[in-house]
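Input.
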Amino acid sequence: MRDIPLVSIVDDDASVRDALADLFESSGLRTCSFACARDFLESEVAAKSQCIVSDIQMPGMSGIELSRTLRAGAIDTPIILISAYATDAIRRSAEAIGVTCMLAKPFDPLELLACVEAALSAA
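Output.
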């Protein structure tokens, strides 16, 4: 079971977390979901994740802030950001942090899955 990659999902919307978990698990991946960035960072899963998929717009800490916090801690786990508000400025911020992929909602689930698989194969 440990050889199966673990994808952490960080999104304040429970229906999105559930849908993403179903998508990844149906593709043979393990998942762990969090309703906020703080919960993820305080969990033991943060150090064990092979890929992180996070919403950008969340109460408290945003996906961009989560990404900055991880990078500042020298955690180079691939990060994929999703957002209904994917402006050019947000895209530039994500690229500057070293985010692996950023997708605008609504996105094609297969495109997200391809981003995750590419991130996992590059790690």
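The mean pLDDT is 93.
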